[in-house]
Amino acid sequence: MDLLQWYEKGIEPDVYIESMKKHKENLLAIYDHFQLPDNYTLYAQVKEKQLKVIVLTEDWCGDAMLNIPILLKLAEATNMDVRILYRDQNLELMDQYLTNETSRSIPIFIFIDANGNEKATWGPRAKSIQDFVDKAQAKLPNKEEADYQDKFKEMILFMNKSFRDNSQFWEHVYKSLEHTLKQIS
């Protein structure tokens, strides 16, 4: 399938959000509280490009909970149509967008033009968010340690709460997406 066909296979963001079982409230909290900066020049430039976005995700993903509401706000300001595909049901596409050529990390945002040509990709995290995650993971005990699973679960809870509540993280995601959109010719 080409990217336009993948896009057409995707579901509308509202359908995705309504079907969420894990992070729906957190995603909506970010969406409700994040305010786009007044960057009307960028929004007009992106609007002219008539982009569409394919989002590869799963609703259990904390990174998706953080990043998707920021993308949706940008999409509204720029008239970008967004379609969501579940990663685990679309591995053929996901495997074309592996992180570090090995990991099925999500979310992945694939920006395409009206003809389905890939213009840019983004994900799974802004660099500053990756740094935050790396520092949290560095504090974990070795996987062989008896308390690893408990510490890992604590770390995930801490990260998800941070993603939901720390508006600076939202700004970092926005800035990273903004940078990607500015690079599209």
Structure commentary:
- The chain has one domain: Glutaredoxin.
- Helix content is 55%, strand content 12%.
- It contains nine helices and four strands.
- Strands 2-1-3-4 form a four-stranded mixed sheet, sandwiched between helices.
- Helix 5 (62-78) links the parallel strand 1 and strand 2.
- The protein is globular and about 55 Å long.
- The two termini are 24 Å apart.
- 32% of the residues are buried.
Task: Please give a handful of descriptors for the protein shown.
185 residues; alpha+beta; Glutaredoxin; 4-stranded mixed β-sheet; 9 helices; globular; Thioredoxin family protein
Fold blueprint:
Blueprint: H1 3-9, H2 13-19, H3 24-33, H4 40-49, E1 52-57, H5 62-78, E2 81-86, H6 91-94, E3 108-112, E4 118-122, H7 127-138, H8 148-165, H9 167-182
Protein name: Thioredoxin family protein
InterPro entries: Thioredoxin-like_sf (IPR036249)
Pfam family, one: Thioredoxin_9
Helix content, binned percent: 40-55%
The class by helix and strand makeup works out as: alpha+beta
Order of helices and strands: HHHHEHEHEEHHH
Strand order, largest beta sheet: 2-1-3-4
**N- to C-terminal separation?**
24 Å
Which spans have pLDDT < 50 for at least 5 consecutive residues? none
Number of domains: 1
Query: How many runs of DSSP E, i.e. beta strands?
Result: 4
CATH architecture: 3-Layer(aba) Sandwich
DSSP helix count?
Answer: 9
Shape: globular
Query: What percent of residues are in strands?
Result: 5-15%
> Which fold name corresponds to the CATH topology?
Glutaredoxin
Largest sheet data: 4 strands, mixed
Radius of gyration: 17 Å
CATH top level is Alpha Beta
**CATH-level-4 superfamily name:** Glutaredoxin
How confident overall, as mean pLDDT?
95
InterPro entries: Thioredoxin-like_sf
Protein name: Thioredoxin family protein
